[in-house]
Amino acid sequence: MSRSRKHHHHVYVVELSDRAWSEASFRKANPDYQLSKPLVYVGMTGLDPDLRFDRHKAGIQANRFVLQYGLRLLPQLYEVYNPMPHEAAREMEVELAIGLREAGYGVWQA
Known about the structure:
This protein has 110 residues and is of the alpha+beta class. It has helices spanning 3-6, 24-29, 49-57, 64-69, 86-102; strands at 10-16, 39-45, 70-73, 106-109.
């Protein structure tokens, strides 16, 4: 199997509207959120992140925070990592979410 076929998974970050902060579950997940930082969703996919974002917004296997509050992808936060093997993407999704939360972002990661 070629490297390009084997390494086709991606992590991605979606900027969420400030309205996501009105959700109690989002606030509870982000007790150290800094108001100057964006609210984001961190995910992983076997698709191109642009296509995955479009699918979220169309309601296809959508996370409700992205469906309701998703504004745009933030490639500057994830492009450096992609593409990667499936297992690496699963791990990086968690690590990226933790790192962003530690940096003061409001993060939802399903």
